[in-house]
Amino acid sequence: MASQKLFMLLTLACLLAVTNVITATRDLYIKPGHRLASRLETNEGLVPCWNALLELKSCSNEIVDFFLNGQTDIGPDCCRAITIITHHCWPAMLTSIGFTAEEGNILRGYCDATASVPVTSPPAGSPVPRA
Fold first, then answer.
1. Element (H or E) spanning 30, and its range?
2. Phi and psi for 89 in degrees, rounded to 5?
């Protein structure tokens, strides 16, 4: 009786081991053009995303002040990085560095609105105000 259970257990273990070997060695289909090396070499690849993420490191004080005070302007370089990340990279990239999805949406909305506002210059011949 015990030998039958042992035989059954060994048979089941061998079957599971063979199944794991078969499924682990199958080829994965990768769509043409979806190679990591080619994505890293193009401007639409991952490099701009990582560069933008590094840019966010230098403007993290601006972002924290923006959320704490609600009045601090986020600079154009920082907004450019936020725009790249929120429009062209993974949606979870901002959450991976500690921002909530809601904060990411707020930053995206602020930077999108700032980018759509035209920069106005004073009319020619008018004096430039001094601070």
1. none
2. -115, -170
Judge residue 82's burial from the number of C-beta atoms within 10 Å of its C-beta, 0-12 exposed, 13-18 middle, 19 or more buried.
buried
Return d(Cα 118, Cα 101) in angstroms, integer. Answer: 28
Asked if residue 79 lies in contact with residue 59, where contact means CB atoms within 8 angstroms, the answer is: no
What is the identity of the amino acid at 72? Answer: T
Angle among Cα 77, 112, 88 to the nearest 5 degrees reads: 75
E-strand stretches of the chain: none
Helix (H) or strand (E) holding 64: helix 60-69
Angstrom CA distances, 130 to 99, 101, 102, 127, stand at 38, 41, 39, 9
- Cβ atoms of 56 and 85 within 8 Å: the answer is yes
One pLDDT digit (tens) per residue for the chain, 131 residues = 667 776 666 676 666 665 555 555 556 566 665 565 655 555 566 788 889 988 988 888 899 999 998 877 899 999 999 999 998 887 678 888 888 999 999 999 999 998 776 555 445 555 544 54
User: Hunting for tokens 């907004």 — which residue is that?
Assistant: 79
